[in-house]
## 1
Amino acid sequence: MATIGMTPRPFTHIDTWVFDLDNTLYPHHVNLWQQVDARIGEFISAFLKISAEEARVIQKDYYRRYGTSMRGMMTEHGVHADDYLAYVHKIDHSPLEPNPAMGAAIAKLPGRKLILTNGSTDHAGAVLERLGITQHFEAVFDIIAAELEPKPAPQTYDRFLRVHGVDPSKSAMFEDLARNLVVPHQLGMTTVLVVPDGAKEVVREDWELEGRDAAYVDHVTDDLTGFLEKLST
């Protein structure tokens, strides 16, 4: 599937390709993020000394309001980012399998390739290694580089563009959350929403799957590898 918005921006002028990490560079149905999600709940429960059920409510509330549960825990409860990130990203990455076809498609894209993630560099490194695509990316801009301000905060995109010398009008952004494409589109980036394969079961909240028809989403795909292959031919 590859659908487009009302006035989709093209890719002919793109010289920088920016990718989110989780649920974007690997399929939603792998549910790798569910491991992180579970450990976030465990961390919140232990830190606040509350039940798993209470922690779940707080976790999802902060995620929606602050961009990440971590930011909410830092703001509301003084959690240290290092402790949080070390705990929640201690997961089993083995469900991820090498994706040489996607790697080849990324390699053929003209220009630079960068990662922009709300996760950590260590987690991103493990994911890219398992997928076998590490060598195709120039750099990873993680939550630490973002000074702990997660997407969709406007200052995070501004900082990313400045640090890496990226011209947004010549860039494309690939994301699995539509709300994280609002600011990129405002900045002039061509935006691509990566959605789950409808034939596979995924664990997502309803709001996380919204936005396919939004004006700030230029393109939608449920097959990133196939989408990239068409761009690079």
## 2
Amino acid sequence: MITATLVAAIALVLSLSAVGGTYAFLSSSQSIALVSATGETSTTISAGTATLAVNGDAISMTALYPGITKTAEFTVTNTGSTSLALSVDSIAGPTAANGLTATVARGTCASAAPAFASGSLGLTLAAQASSTMCLSVAMPTTAPSSAQGVTSSLSVALTGTQP
């Protein structure tokens, strides 16, 4: 009997390893008492929350000229109840047409953290935790002359994903 079970288990492992792919068995359960110790007949199941709050000063985009970079610090706070991995979803605005580049980096503007126009910031923010970020807007020396006297605005979209 043990030999037959062992042979069946080995055959199962070999057959699954030949197929390849990724397998996962995900399960979640909650026991619900029909009548609680206090006589109540209902139970509440609560899920976590994911919420980001952003505070900071507006970046001054006046007097931008080729070769200059303007920066502004802001704070991102995870006001939810679950950890969130932060990433830059997008930086929208007429930056390319105006010859501007914009990036976000974790940490203060004085730090040398890698900056991103999109993608992961490499930071997971715990529930109720905050982190300082830096928005940089630059006009490269190769900016087109058509960028002179043009106004611009930016919108930065940050995403928090449960790791």
## 3
Amino acid sequence: MKIRILLTATLMIGACSEQPAGEPVVRTQLDGSEPAEIVAEPTPEAAPTQAAAQQSACSDKVFEGVSLTHCIADPAEHSVTTALAPSSGSNFGTIGAWAAGKNEGDIAFVVNGGMYGDDLRPIGYYVEGSDRLKELNRADGPGNFHLKPNGVFFGSGSTWRVLDTETFYRTIGDRPQFGTQSGPMLVIGGKLHPEFQDDGPSRALRNGVGIDADGKAHFVISNAPISFGKFGRFFRDELKTPNALFLDGNVSSLWDPANGRMDSRRVGPLLVVRDK
């Protein structure tokens, strides 16, 4: 009896598991009293659920030698809302914890959306679903948030704006559907923040948002440490946003379902961009 043996070659593809980027331990100062930060380049992690079958609103850029990810929210195609990352439970304070159990099919992308306290709650103006959960903060103090002028990213429907805090205080009477306050402003009326150096020693992972002349919101997150001056120039010179706001540093995070990116740093307020 002949015994036929069929040999089947099996190709196995091993995926490398990258380590999380880690937790930030300091916030940036611009007064020169602190040494320049050394922050590891972020490591995007695989999304916890299957990536949406859609074209990403985000793309990679390189500006003055620094890798950035640039995401565009178009009011004709997207909506913007605010949310808070969970302050307890598994992986609390992360975008992934907020995303758990949600249908990612209509999510274009999510970024961290402003500075927060030890309780992971906003330290500045915050509106979610037209409900104001935190008053406008005009106080003086230390750190980036209080590096005046700071500002507010806000909007209702398809109209989104970035204004410095004092202009917002003087001119905005109606409560928007969403709003988040942070600081410093990166670009004010087409000019860089007056305290920025061209390429100062303070370097960190950073993210921000600016609005162009067509009303589109440009969200940018650095994939390597970047100075405030260089970051502001990208908004002013490349994206042509007359006003742009710094959202946070070191903890800067992005969820881009279409590209399978889910950053795992601890954040507080979130900006959620959905497909209409």
